[in-house]
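Students often ask what a 'structure token' actually looks like in practice. Rather than answer in the abstract, let us consider Guanylate cyclase domain-containing protein, a protein of 560 residues. Its sequence is given first.
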Amino acid sequence: MISFHRSIQFKILGVAIGLLVAMVAAMIFATQSTARVNRQLATFTEAMLPFALTAKDMRAAMLGEQWAILHRQPGLCGAAFAARSKSIQQQLATMETFRRHGETIAVLEINRSKFVELRPLVAEIGERHGQLIADVGRLCAAGDTEEGRIAAALARDRAIEIEHHVDDLSDDIAAFSRQSVDMVQANEQRALYANRLLVGIAALVGLYLAWLIARGLTRPIERLRQGALAVQSGNLEREVPVTTSDEIGEVTRAFNAMIGELRLKEEIKATFGRYIDPRIVSTLISADAQRSMAGQRQLVTIFFSDLVGFTPIADRLTPDGLVTLMNAYFTAMSEAIRAENGIIDKYIGDAVMAFWTAPFIAEGNQAEAACRAALAQFDRLAEFRRQLPDLMRLRHDLPPIDIRIGLSSGEAVVGSIGSDAARNFTVMGDVVNAGSRLESANKFYGTRILIDQAVRDQAGASIAVRMVDCVILKGRSEASPIFELRGLGGEGAQDELVERYDAAFAAYREGDWATAQSGFDACLAIAPADGPARLLAARTAMLAAEPPQVWSGVWKMETK
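Now compare that with the structural description of the same chain:
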């Protein structure tokens, strides 16, 4: 079982968590930066600005108070002046309140220090204003006396001095307010820049993590794809390296195991394919083997071939030499059959049995493919004859070698036949015996390839044939024409020999012995070694000498 911490789910979840953490960190930083700027704004709006506005109002009130003192207005000693002085004291108290509040909430140390610096200034202005009120009280008490004039002079000087202090305080506050505004704006811009930078970094980190995870996922998948394409092209030697411990790693291991099983199946097919046709091996090891191997009746074309001159060869070779020779012969002959999608059923001594049937070849193409394979065998035989001196280690006195082939077509039972211990995928039916009889009949007719009527009809114009005889084969009760396969369509055209033979054979079947004899003799004049003409000429002479009472044109073969 795959560990959760190494699974694809965890990797994808890890990317999501990483992005979430990065975004949360960016959000926290942005929140803190915004809160810091907000506190700076709060310091300005809740302390600095009210302090400056109150100082401005106080300065205006003190200017009025100073005017009254300098010009000794009539109301200087009245209630109006006292009320104004009290208002100034209240404004000073309000300024102190704003100053303390600013000192408390200030975020920047420079702001806190400034509020601390303002404390003695406000206190000094308040103290001097108190002294000014005392001077005005003495002035009002002394009246128009020398003492009153001295008190008036002190009051004027103190009022001017307070004015200077208030002006300095106002200028200082105005400059610091402008500085505070600039600082707030600068900090706000820095916070915005830092937020953008952090969000960008978080996005880049997230994208990098996503790229790492994506590459970690796609690279093994791409290796799997390449491996699958290699297997599809037939390369079973390639294994995909397992580089991860997640689900893809498990799939890769399973894929490699599958390749191993496919390789094993191919080895089985290659091994057993030497004894059984590889296509049958593929069917046997498939999931649908039982149904595919069940017996079925279907159209089959049977092939039988026999090596002429085998006995003299066997007598002159050692067992090892004979096996080597026969393996070379069977290899050459089998290649021609398999090239036309035929199934090698068995090797019987020096004979070969094969068949064509669905699903190994398209329905209806069996007879034509079998004819092509039979004709191709003689091309392979010519090459085999050239190799014979090396195979037999002889340069002279080589035995003559030839092959005879019989082809028949019809319905047969096809399937896996045998005991529980051993089975063979083969065909059974009268058509098999017919193919064997036709192969043997070549000996009597002096031909190399004989086919029956069914093969002739199914192959049609794709082949060139000569009707050799009409016979009842050994073991059969019905008459059947037999044909000599002379080539593919267009190769064995109706030459003079075939035309004369057909005419002579027609007379033979009609019982016109003289015409038949004359025709077969004419064939021998054209081709003295023609086996069918020689056999039919001798038979015609025999029948002419002792005419049968009933003649149907059919010859019954008494031997296999």
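One point worth highlighting: The radius of gyration is 61 Å. Ask yourself how you might have guessed this from the sequence alone, and why that guess would often be unreliable.
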